[in-house]
């Protein structure tokens, strides 16, 4: 899918994260619980290797609870990693994050040795909401300090707990095709970067295979006919049901696609997670094989040119 999602400010964000990561004790990555692997930044995985990590599966209120359990188990099995599932309405969210952070790095709890935490997350995962909750009524000391670049903020949650906030950053190339679609469906990439109809069709294809009854219920579809529908038939049906019509009663597919995406993003179809750890492992393998093939082709062309 041709998605242009690496604008200039993301280069700056990457630079800021690369520098800051060297001097922090812990890296918090806020993920979207509906697409934990797709919303995880592979650059961050590389940059933060060897550091303790806290993964936050945010928006769990919108995610499939059974699948959230699978993801929690997956992250818990990783070394130096703790994981929490949260949502914005959880009043305890900030105290849970602070407690989990302290548990991961117990030896930094003093004025001389404050716990220095970098918090990252791609756009729209709910990082600002979470940080605002952590700040509470406290006023934060922000920016314009020596050693703090414009692309980051230092927030003093307590004298012994410093939080470095960086802007949401995506990465230049997405090798897992499904991740591109899932990110687009979740709203993580700007509207200009994607063809909403394609994204909605991919989403409907996944939902009809994994969450058929939710689709049927939400859009009042015939229970015996709809199991045989493909993604385009679903979009057609939803267009009719949700009043996405042009003159003469033809379906306005763009509008129908927008309605499906909004319904998904707002949780109106139900609590849905677009990937499981097993699915992700298969997609990743496929993506890596494809990348390797592209690389081999590029090399072969280069060799041919030399000759
Ligand atoms: P960001 O900093 O990572 O870019 O994300 P931000 O906090 O701005 O949150 C993006 C959107 O996600 C916001 O909705 C926010 O309210 C919503 N959100 C954040 N955390 C959760 C959560 O745990 N559950 C749910 N259901 N929603 C969450 P918005 O529509 O863009 O803005 P608004 O409705 O808050 O005005």
Short summary:
The protein has 307 residues and is α/β, with parallel strands linked by helices. Helix content is 45%, strand content 12%.
List the defining traits of the structure above.
single chain; 307 residues; alpha/beta; Rossmann fold; Conserved Hypothetical Protein Ylqf, Chain: A, domain 2; 11 helices; 6 strands; 45% helix; binds guanosine-5',3'-tetraphosphate
Distance between the termini: 34 Å
* Succession of helices and strands: HEHEHEHEHEEHHHHHH
| Highest-level CATH class of the largest domain | Alpha Beta
Mean pLDDT: 89
Number of domains: 2
Q: Order of strands in the sheet with the most strands?
A: 3-2-1-4-6-5
- According to CATH, what is the topology of the largest domain? Rossmann fold
Under the CATH scheme, the architecture of the largest domain is 3-Layer(aba) Sandwich
Question: Runs with pLDDT <50, length 5+?
Answer: none
Mind telling me the CATH superfamily name of the largest domain?
Answer: P-loop containing nucleotide triphosphate hydrolases
The structure class reads alpha/beta
**Count of alpha and pi helical runs:** 11
- Could you estimate the helical fraction of the residues in percent? 40-55%
- What molecules are bound to this protein? guanosine-5',3'-tetraphosphate
Strand % is: 5-15%
Instruction: Tell me the major beta sheet.
Output: 6 strands, mixed
How large is the radius of gyration? 22 Å
Shape annotation: globular
């Amino acid at each position: 899918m041709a998605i242009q999602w690496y604008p200039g400010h993301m280069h700056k964000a990457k630079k800021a994260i690369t520098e800051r990561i060297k001097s922090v004790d812990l890296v918090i990555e806020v993920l979207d619980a509906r697409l934990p692997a797709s919303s995880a930044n592979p650059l961050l995985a590389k940059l933060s290797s060897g550091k303790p990590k806290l993964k936050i599966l945010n928006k769990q209120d919108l995610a499939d609870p059974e699948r959230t359990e699978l993801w929690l188990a997956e992250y818990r099995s990783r070394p130096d990693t703790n994981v929490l599932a949260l949502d914005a309405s959880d009043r305890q969210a900030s105290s849970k994050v602070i407690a989990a952070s302290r548990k991961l790095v117990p030896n930094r709890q003093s004025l001389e040795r404050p716990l220095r935490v970098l918090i990252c997350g791609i756009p729209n995962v709910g990082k600002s909401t979470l940080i605002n909750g952590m700040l509470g009524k406290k006023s934060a000391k922000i920016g314009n300090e020596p050693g703090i670049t414009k692309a980051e903020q230092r927030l003093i949650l307590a004298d012994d707990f410093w939080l470095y906030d960086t802007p949401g950053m995506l990465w230049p190339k997405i090798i897992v095709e499904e991740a591109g679609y899932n990110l687009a469906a979740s709203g993580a990439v700007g509207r200009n970067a994607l063809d909403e109809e394609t994204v909605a069709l991919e989403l409907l294809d996944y939902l009809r295979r994994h969450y058929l009854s939710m689709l049927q219920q939400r859009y009042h579809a015939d229970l015996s006919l709809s199991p045989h529908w493909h993604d385009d038939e679903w979009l057609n049906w939803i267009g009719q049901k949700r009043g996405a019509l042009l003159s003469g009663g033809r379906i306005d597919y763009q509008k129908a696609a927008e309605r499906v995406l909004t319904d998904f993003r707002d949780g109106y179809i139900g609590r849905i997670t677009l990937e499981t750890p097993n699915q992700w492992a298969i997609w990743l393998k496929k993506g890596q094989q494809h990348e390797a093939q592209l690389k081999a082709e590029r090399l072969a062309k280069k060799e041919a040119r030399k000759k």
